[in-house]
């Protein structure tokens, strides 16, 4: 199957043609910010729904502002670009996209010109019911006062890369970061929830984690309204993870990924637990539009609509 074309600064181009100058800050210092999001094909409606696009666009703009890029794109511009890349590739299947805003100028203090590309790709869906093995990383999550993890800057992901490669070398699927204060933070591309003593808990956003849109969706809707559990946002200690009944990672890419062992301690029974399973089913039904509540979170790609 051929790769999708990339949308780059207003044009649809082949992957090989989407190139950046080697002396740009984007290439040399990883001066980029990005979003990763999915759109889901709904057979019933014959429509491709982008999930919470407005929230992803707001966060991309916030990331540009925070990293002191010029911000030449409105939410409407970003929406038009997403529609152009999906319609231009005639995408009628589940798709994952990276929206990347970068600084094309040279030098550490370059703030412009800001360019944008969107790279749609077929990304494997998470296999429901299958868990991953995790470890507590010996790498510490970068802190809000160093390079803020609250937003999505490409350079942040060097921290995640080190943790991930170490985890793989040591025989685990995924690392879990502690922050500089020794509290549980998150995974490399996903936030973390655990079930312990009958409560569904996740670290607060002051624990050096991304302000995840999936996390918010679970807190605002999926857990209380579908699964019947309110989420407790609080600090979490490492040893609580070792004695948790269930744990899962979540994110636009990770969807709901069960964690069935941490540092070789089985999480609960070592199988995917009932809360994780219920949240996973409810989340997938919501993003695809099988659960028809919250139509404002599913933006049709083909039907004319304003964001
Ligand atoms: C570091 C990090 N944490 C958490 C997440 C999950 O965020 P979201 O639910 O907004 O995709 C991501 C993925 O984007 C991430 O890169």
What does this structure look like?
The protein is an alpha+beta fold and 307 residues long. The chain folds into two domains: 116 residues, D-amino Acid Aminotransferase, Chain A, domain 1 (2-Layer Sandwich), CATH 3.30.470.10; 157 residues, D-amino Acid Aminotransferase, Chain A, domain 2. 26% of the residues lie in helices and 28% in strands. It contains seven helices and 15 strands. The strands form two sheets. Strands 7, 8, 9, 10, 11, 12, 13 and 14 form an eight-stranded mixed sheet that branches. The chain has a seven-stranded antiparallel sheet with strand order 2-1-6-5-3-4-15. A hairpin with a 2-residue loop joins strand 9 and strand 10. Helix 5 packs across helix 7. The relative contact order is 0.16. The mean pLDDT is 96. The protein binds pyridoxal-5'-phosphate. The site of pyridoxal-5'-phosphate has 14 residues, from helix 5.
